[in-house]
Protein 1
Amino acid sequence: MNMSMAVLTKNALFYGLHQGNLNNFFIDLICFKPANRSMQLQPAKKKKKKKKKTQEKLLTTFREWRLMEHLMEVASSNRNEDEIAVKYIIFFIDLVARSASVEEAGLLFHGHEELIVDSLMKGLLDEDQSRTSWQRVACGQTLVQYLDVCSRPTIVDPTQAYTEALGVPVDPSPNVLHQMFKVCAKLNLFIIVIIHL
């Protein structure tokens, strides 16, 4: 990625997710699966390797930019307007749902289990009483949804839900976020014990 394109992408990703359709653009970019038709011209092994290498490079860049840390900070902190925080929360849970069936997307999440649970719990509990009720509820709901997605060993890609609704059976994919659930479950149990004290 050339320097000006990298700066533009980073600014859009870090400061524009709550505006317009940038959130959908980045989710589609992170979870991109090429249509079979457009990839028929290349040999199977070559197209898989090229797609995987390009996507891994992009996700590694996002990880180096500390995207997950930024998402959790904006979503759970009191430093942003309620509307912005909630839009980042929505982006995060949409990204979780779509990424669960995309092997390469796991790179963005793995190693951030504690950060995600801690940030959402911080927003929910609101120890400094600086968040709105809506932001607290959104953090709590997102934590439950995140744990729900991570707890499933297999998952149906939400983009295929329409096909399934039409009666066409869709085979579930392995959930790349499922391995995070063990860490999340331990943290969640610890948090429940603390709340009941």
Protein 2
Amino acid sequence: MEINWEVIGVVTLLVIILIVLTIRKNLKEKKQTRKLAKQRF
């Protein structure tokens, strides 16, 4: 079994990008829900 470092590097990069995007999306959604909650009260 030969370890292909290029493939590992690309996969890790994609995973990191996915995590960052999901975190940013969650933060935006939380801000929107807070705004909606303030409008209701």
Protein 3
Amino acid sequence: MWQSLALDVIDRILTHIDDIDTLKSIICVSRRTAAVYRAHPNSILTIVCQNEAGAAWPSVARFVLFKRTRLLAETEDQAVEAMTPLERKDVMTYLQSGYSVQELAERFFSRYAPHKAGASVYQCVIVRCALYRIWLYQARFGGAWERWFDSTSHKPAPDLEARREYVDKFSNHERMEFTIIYRWLMSEIGKFSTLPGYTSQFPERHAQLYISRELPDISEVLCFWLSSFQLSRRIILTKMNQFFPDALPYRTPVSITDCLEEHILGDDCIYKKPCDRCNTTGTMKWNEKNWSVAGGFWGTPEDFVDEFLDTELRDMREFRQPLVDAMERLDYGIDEIFCDVLELAGYSAVQMHEQWICTGCISGMLHEWLTFCWIKNLPQVLDSSEDENTLASPPPSAGVAWSIVRYLVRKHESSVSSNQL
């Protein structure tokens, strides 16, 4: 087919391709397409990269230009002009940067729109632009700020006015999107910084430092190291605002009024989806697709246990601590807990897969069934811990055993009363 096409037609086809992999494949199809490409490769590569990036191209161009020249263009439009055409190394910078940006974008959407099959083009552009702008901010200012932060110098932080000016030049919408994605990255780094045995005893300081690193470093630790329920203690995320002076303090959104991510996601935000149990909106929804990140929503394993375990048994360390230990080691993770609790609440495997349940409803079920689930799983978890020599707490004493019996009797009596009504 390609042999019968005029060269200018082939040229037009190549410049309408919207991803580099397709361009590579077509060039390999025939010598004729390869000859057209070799006639002006840089201009074709530039157009294909622009097509692939779409409306995010100005942000990409400014980032790639800085990586080439170490000079910060005044505006993104100026960078677009300066980056026409691209050089080969610019294309490599763009392709390599795309992996980290894509990983983090997917992680963001999985947090705040897990019920959607995929984000819209508009939403993807917003998040990608914000990530490239944050990465450029890190690349331009991060090195000097990190050296200052790591030193004992009492001098003012470097580039303060330049850092503020960088963000102030964006439109109101762009500043808000930059701030939202930056704040989300702060929260994710904060969780990572409390991983037992990985970071120092000063997770707040580690998190403050890490936010100034470039996105590939952050993407690596978040996508390959972070398990959201391995939190040893809470981190004060409001202290992480030094690198970006005007960053908003982060807290886990409890309701839609706390969820700034709605600014990006609109009606696709998970907080706006009605609960399939009570039909309310405005709070987080849970389904087996996002159970694995539910732990951090309630804090550390200790926070979770204190919230939902039976009051009498919660005060008995021999019963309580093995559950905390099992959750920290993921021997009895939050996804298993949710599955067990929902099963006792009458949900089938199909319903767990299809239905989304609000925080209020899932909290009620956890209050009702977590203790029973732990009683059922405690012997197995203790046996497993003994086999692996990881048992942190002794097995329950006779006193705890009697408390378990009393709890089960109360549970049975409550069930009988409910059936009689």
